[in-house]
Amino acid sequence: MLTYILLAVPVIFLVASVYYAYKSVALNKKSRKTAVLRQIASFAIVGTFCLITSMAVMAAGENPAAAAPAGDLNKGLSMIGAALATGISGIGGGIAVGGAAPAAIGATSEDPKAFGKALIFVALGEGVALYGLLVSILIIAQ
Within this chain, do residues 75 and 142 fall inside the same structural domain, yes or no? Predict the structure, then answer.
């Protein structure tokens, strides 16, 4: 029961911080930059809380995976690697598409014949995210 309560606290905190940031921007009390910084700070607090909580639960001996074989460490690290491959490539692809898509729209509005060339540059940015996803699938499949 304690585990479920400890799992609910970060979720409640993150939902409350998102709601507070939305209300503060909607009511024009704070700038958007302040709201984003507040969200980053709340993410750091929740991440620290989750790390400390998991350490405390393992130190108390309430680890349900205590009888797991030693190969689970390799499986866990491969899952972290797959998540990093997908996440970082997704962020990179988003940055690439965020710069290429408006330029493609602008080029197409000036010359409709440039649509095919512009679409290729947008697809190249999305390809980065797909490659990261494929790498993570290969990591998980091992």
Answer: yes
Are the CB atoms for 125 and 110 separated by under 8 Å?
no
| Residue 7 structural domain | 1-67
Tens of pLDDT, residue by residue, the chain (142 residues): 666 776 677 777 778 777 777 777 777 666 777 777 777 887 788 778 777 776 776 666 655 555 555 567 778 788 888 888 998 998 888 888 888 889 888 989 998 888 888 888 889 888 889 999 999 999 988 8
Collapse the DSSP code of 64 into the 3-class scheme (helix H, G, I; strand E, B; otherwise coil) and give the result.
coil
Rounded to whole angstroms, the Cα distance separating 64 from 61 reads 9
Q: Cα(21)–Cα(36) distance, rounded to whole angstroms?
A: 8
Assess contact for 31 and 59: CB atoms under 8 A: no
Site of tokens 């309560």: 5
**CA-to-CA distance for 79 and 74, rounded, in angstroms?**
9
pTM of the model: 0.53
